[in-house]
């Protein structure tokens, strides 16, 4: 009976794909609303949203569009701030504009998963849910500062996913890539793997014109980012004084990375010896997944699994002096998002053989992640800093220092708009 019910449900889903994907996106929106209620009910600037993107636009005008932070560009949030101020949107409504801009990126990514991810429709629905239901800390949600991590998913979806439907679709892909590649360092990180992938396709005579155009776009911005990072130097990450050895710290981060989607906040309480044993088992499972994905005609899942390892390695290098402070729930949580999501997506690229059983497994897996996200992480409600009052004082003839969330952050605003706004 359960098998018949599952088959009937799958048949309904296949007949009503548009309704299903709308329901899935609605479920993701409800989770975002639950976890970051404050972002919807009383929008305020978060961290760099105010300190850099809005403040630079307000103080410096259009000259700030290509300002760098951490050595790379943030064109999308800076452009949003500049366009909003130039269009005369009241300062009070600027955080709301940032929320709308953030939601727009979520919807765009979900749409491209639906249209371009090279899997079955049911697997694409689970992939959409995974973008929000993965139980990572609140920092990465509903702010332009960290929307770059989600937006970077457009690179594999556009370059490696299903081909675009025509020249206008390819043109749209290029425009989107221009914004994605200039908002974060991800074009540089992706470029070596994409170069190898394109070489393999060229050797097999299956490299399309659209492939060449999108690859050239990513490659161009990878070079620009590389040049921009030359004079940046390295980041000192010893603020927590957690210390610890590189070897044991790396093993601990590996365990957290592999198991926080499964046991969420409880990863920190697992004894170290058990961490080693479970990580060894998980690595065996990842090797099996790698071997299975090699059998696929499409390399999408295999490349995602490889990139999961690449992003994990970059995290180790970036936090090499402070690995013991890393946590998917607290410090450095944004660095856990893409590697874990890529593993989930790679597993979703496995061909479905026993359909009802596989779908039931993914329902349980994504459902369990959602339960953990709601029950263990819950909602994060930042303090209402009375932005209405602060906005009314901006531009009244004196310089202002405005408090921001999270606590301890602030932005400094000149007495008046920049002259070119």
The tally of helices reads 18
Helix content: 55-70%
Report the average pLDDT across residues.
91
* Overall 3D form: globular
Low-confidence stretches: 239-243
Helix-strand sequence = HHHHEEHHHHHHHHHHHHHHEE
Sheet with most strands: 2 strands, antiparallel
Helix-strand makeup class: mainly alpha
Radius of gyration: 22 Å
Strand content: under 5%
- N- to C-terminal separation? 65 Å
Number of strands: 4
**Strand order within the widest sheet?**
1-2
Tell me about this structure.
The protein is mostly helical and 421 residues long. The chain has helices at residues 2-15, 17-35, 37-41, 48-60, 75-86, 94-116, 121-133, 147-151, 154-159, 167-181, 186-203, 209-229, 246-263, 272-293, 300-318, 334-348, 355-377, 387-393; strands spanning 68-69, 72-73, 400-404, 409-413. A two-stranded antiparallel sheet has the order 1-2. A hairpin with a 2-residue loop joins strand 1 (68-69) and strand 2.
């Amino acid at each position: 009976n359960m098998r018949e019910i599952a088959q009937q449900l799958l048949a309904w889903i296949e007949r009503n794909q548009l309704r299903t994907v709308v329901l899935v996106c609605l479920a993701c929106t409800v989770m975002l609303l639950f976890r970051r209620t404050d972002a919807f009910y009383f929008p305020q600037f978060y961290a760099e949203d105010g300190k850099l993107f809005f403040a630079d636009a307000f103080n410096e005008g259009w000259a700030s569009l290509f300002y760098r932070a951490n050595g790379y560009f943030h064109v999308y949030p800076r452009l949003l701030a500049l366009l909003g101020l130039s269009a005369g949107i009241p300062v009070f409504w600027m955080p709301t504009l940032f929320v709308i801009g953030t939601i727009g990126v979520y919807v765009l990514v979900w749409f491209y998963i639906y249209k371009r991810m090279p899997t079955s429709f049911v697997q694409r629905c689970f992939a959409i849910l995974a973008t929000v239901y993965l139980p990572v800390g609140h920092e990465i949600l509903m702010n332009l500062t960290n929307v770059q991590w989600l937006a970077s998913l457009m690179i594999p979806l556009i370059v490696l996913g299903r081909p675009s439907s025509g020249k206008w679709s390819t043109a749209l892909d290029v425009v989107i890539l221009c914004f994605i590649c200039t908002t974060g360092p991800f074009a540089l990180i992706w470029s070596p793997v994409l170069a190898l992938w394109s070489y393999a396709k060229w050797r097999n005579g299956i490299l399309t014109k659209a492939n060449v155009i999108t690859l050239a776009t990513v490659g161009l911005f990878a070079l620009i980012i590389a040049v921009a990072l030359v004079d940046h130097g390295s980041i000192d990450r010893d603020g927590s004084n957690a210390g610890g050895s590189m070897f044991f710290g790396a093993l601990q981060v590996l365990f957290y990375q592999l198991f926080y989607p499964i046991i969420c906040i409880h990863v920190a309480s697992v004894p170290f010896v058990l961490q080693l044993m479970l990580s060894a088992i998980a690595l065996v499972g990842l090797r099996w997944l790698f071997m299975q994905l090699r059998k696929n005609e499409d390399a999408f899942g295999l490349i995602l699994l490889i990139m999961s390892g690449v992003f994990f390695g970059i995290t180790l290098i970036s936090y090499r002096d402070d690995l013991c402070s890393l946590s998917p729930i607290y410090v450095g949580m944004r660095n856990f998002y893409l590697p874990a999501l890529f593993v989930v997506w790679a597993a979703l690229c496995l061909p479905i053989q026993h359909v009802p059983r596989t779908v039931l497994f993914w329902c349980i897996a994504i459902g369990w992640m959602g339960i953990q996200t709601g029950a263990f992480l819950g909602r994060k409600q930042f303090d209402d800093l009375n932005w209405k009052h602060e906005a009314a004082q901006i531009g009244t003839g004196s310089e202002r220092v405005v408090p921001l969330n999270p606590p301890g952050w602030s932005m400094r605003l000149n007495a008046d708009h920049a002259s070119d706004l």
